[in-house]
């Protein structure tokens, strides 16, 4: 039986990530090959013409799953009855800037858009914040949209998760799909903690711990962590633009696993509302290992945390507490 289309909002749709993600959504990469979609694309007035150009290309691509396209600069029209909201709109970091530098511009956008989502989106709308500072924008969105359940507001750290998988697969010369259960703890920033203590690789002789196969704790505890933490900056340096295709792909992975579930025995990283798990202050939007089932995420419990990890998990939590204070001071 044909499924009803789901409405997917992409804000900042005329931008780089927008241009990469809308065809992925329309091809079923986000919600599966049988799920029709209606795309809602929002951008601001100066980008209206470019946004209309994206709409023209979507029509020209004749995607079988795409049942409608709304391209608008009206936030209310954009949010109407959306089931999934991918919040990409904002200003990206340029070379030499820290994420804090984009704070002032971006958090005020998220305060405004919170009310539009709260009033006009479908009641069970799942929200993914991509725009930086992603965790803090999501926190502001949550706090200014109190009627949206906190479990429905998340931020993207899947790109960092995928980067960690990529680095391990390159190092071990194994397929990236054979590497599982890395964790990104904390902020989508250079204080994030990419943790391989529970990660494993599927080999011809069964599952093996990543630490055992890499057999170089010095590399894992220094260069590996720094490479993942600094990958966003490395892409900006190389492209003179921030990551786009990998960010779009990771956003699709995030929503697909959230809606359709994580494979048994594996987890992914998502920036979610902290319930105090692992001693992380309640109410922060912090990246945890999560499993997803029936459209709900749950934080993986009971993982052993050593002293090295504890210090890194706390350092990134501290940065999020500081960012929260800074965000509120920007909002005035
Ligand atoms: P971009 O500048 O190419 O596109 C951003 C778009 O947002 C532009 O078209 C702009 O007009 C639009 N915009 C600005 N204000 C808006 C508003 N109020 N409402 C709707 N749209 C608005 O930037 P990009 O490269 O696509 O990056 C977008 C964001 O994603 C940036 O903040 C970037 O830092 C962030 N990012 C996050 C991750 C992650 O892993 N979390 C990865 C890459 C990029
Ligand atoms: C990334 O991680 O690629 C993005 O968040 C861009 C950035 O500012 O680092």
Automatic annotation (TrEMBL):
The keyword Transit peptide does not apply. NAD(+) binds at residues 12-18, 43, 106, 130-132. The active site is at residue 188. One of its GO terms (molecular function) is L-malate dehydrogenase (NAD+) activity. It is an enzyme of class 1 (oxidoreductase). Keywords: NAD, Oxidoreductase, Tricarboxylic acid cycle. Pfam families: Ldh_1_C, Ldh_1_N. Its EC number is 1.1.1.37. Residues 7-153 form the Lactate/malate dehydrogenase N-terminal domain. Signal peptide: none annotated. Residues 157-325 form the Lactate/malate dehydrogenase C-terminal domain. It catalyses: (S)-malate + NAD(+) = oxaloacetate + NADH + H(+). Substrate binds at residues 93, 99, 132, 163. NCBIfam families: MalateDH-SF1, MDH_euk_cyt, PRK05442.1. Belongs to the LDH/MDH superfamily. MDH type 2 family. This is Malate dehydrogenase.
